[in-house]
Write a structure and sequence with these properties.
- The protein folds into 2 domains: 279 residues, Alpha-Beta Barrel (TIM Barrel); 70 residues, no CATH class.
- The protein is 41% helix and 11% strand.
- The protein has 18 helices and 10 strands.
- The strands form 2 sheets. The protein has an 8-stranded parallel barrel with strand order 3-4-5-6-7-8-9-10, surrounded by 6 helices. The protein has a two-stranded antiparallel sheet with strand order 1-2.
- The relative contact order is 0.10.
- The site of one iron/sulfur cluster has 16 residues, from helix 16.
């Protein structure tokens, strides 16, 4: 994309590079730095993301949240567009934290520290108050940020029972909060039926009423099962923040599928795209606080911000989503985990297909392969009994799919 095209969209890449290089404190006040040599026309006002209350935290966060793995040239533009919440911010150190963020007053942006189980992965690792406490303390010291706005328990509890009885995370949070190193408590919750645990929506529903947790993050994409939609609405009623993740199911693979792209030539899809429609669909749910949307480059961010700002779905957006849903049928996993409890081999089907999403929808093949390698049982453990398949709302031939994914990632 050249600058001419970007100008047509109201922004230029150079504009953002300049903002990135000089810091965004001025930009946040609406005064954009413009070099004398190429100025006479002031840059148009950038599109701004809407903000929503993140449940009981009381924070007003951008409807699209940023992530520490976004590329260095996207982050200044994101700040300029109003992104003020940064997922996995603990990965930044004093040296690597982007100037575009740290040049603002500290209260202008919100940083999240993500705390994993220790001594294993999300299924085999355990909760350890002291290690969680030390992890955050070290991250604060390493980053120089002073404090993290949100302590996020990553991957979450295995079951409601564990949430009731194991208070290690909450105790670590309480200690850190007393020391002023964190302010709020949230959870990123996965499903654990494959290890005889509970579904994310049951665990989150419990936490809304029985704990100091103030917000949650979980999988949510178009075509999800009703329980996810219900828990999002319940959260809104209870002033519990919700961030949707793994939102763009099938969008990446549709973008590289020639047949799908040819279908998009029909005028009824004009003016929208599966990605734009998905963003608008997410944003049109008033019960949802925000969404994590994988963003690789300037163009994607620009389109996502524009869609989030418009938010209302048109006929063309609805048609795009219908087309995407048809394309996904039998192919793209919704990560609903309804199949996993039926597997006599305890294969983590939904995790395996999540890694496929990384490879095909985010174009992150190395990450997908690295994650696939960590599985105790990979796709080759499937005995082709077929017990899981009736449970799949996406009509995926799981036996064939596991073979395909193994060929891709194994
Ligand atoms: S077909 Fe494979 S994945 Fe499905 S239940 Fe049987 S062993 Fe498990
Ligand atoms: S394979 Fe089907 S049932 Fe299993 S997680 Fe994916 S969409 Fe859900």
């Amino acid at each position: 994309m050249n600058d001419k095209h970007l100008e047509n969209k109201g922004l230029t890449r150079r504009h953002f590079l300049k903002v990135g290089a000089t810091g965004v404190a001025l930009a946040g006040l609406g005064a954009l730095p413009v070099a004398a040599a190429d100025a006479p026309t002031p840059a148009p006002a950038p599109l701004k993301l809407p903000r929503r209350r993140y449940g009981r935290t009381g924070m007003e966060i951008s409807a699209i949240v940023g992530a520490s793995d976004w590329s260095a040239d996207v982050i200044p533009m994101a700040v300029e567009s109003g992104v003020n919440y940064w997922h996995k911010a603990h990965r930044w150190t004093t040296e690597t934290m982007p100037d575009a963020i740290k040049s603002q007053p500290r209260e202008a942006y919100h940083l999240e520290v993500v705390v994993d189980r220790v001594g294993g992965d999300n299924k085999t690792g355990h909760i350890d108050e002291e290690q969680h406490y030390q992890f955050v303390k070290k991250a604060v010291a390493r980053s120089g940020v002073g404090y993290y706005d949100v302590f996020k328990f990553h991957f979450g509890y295995h079951s409601v029972e564990e949430a009731k009885t194991n208070l290690g995370v909450i105790r670590a949070y309480d200690r850190l909060k007393k020391e002023g190193l964190v302010k709020h408590l949230a959870i990123s919750q996965h499903h654990y039926k494959d290890i005889n645990g509970d579904m994310a929506f049951d665990i989150v529903a419990y936490l809304m009423d029985h704990s100091p947790f103030e917000a949650a993050q979980f999988f949510h994409t178009y075509g999800d099962n009703q329980e996810i939609t219900d828990v999002i609405h319940l959260a809104k009623e209870k002033d519990f923040g919700v961030i949707a993740m793994k939102t763009m199911g099938g969008v990446g693979r549709a973008a590289t599928d020639k047949k799908f792209q040819a279908l998009l030539a029909d005028p009824k899809y004009a003016g929208s795209s599966p990605a734009t429609a998905m963003v608008k669909w997410l944003m049109s749910n008033p019960s949802l606080t925000a969404a994590v949307i994988a963003t690789k480059n300037f163009d994607q961010l620009q389109e996502n911000v524009k869609a989030a700002q418009e938010s209302t779905m048109g006929y063309n957006d609805r048609e795009n989503l219908k087309l995407l849903a048809g394309f996904n049928k039998g192919m793209t996993c919704l990560l609903c985990a309804q199949c996993v409890s039926h597997c006599p081999e305890h294969i983590a089907i939904a995790d395996i297909l999540r890694y496929e999403r990384y490879a095909l929808d985010y174009q992150e093949l190395s990450r997908a392969r690295a994650e696939y390698k960590t599985l105790t049982k990979d796709g080759t453990a499937c005995i082709a009994c077929g017990d899981c398949m009736p449970a799949c709302r996406a009509d995926i031939n799981i036996i064939a799919k596991l073979k395909e994914v193994h060929n891709l990632l194994g």
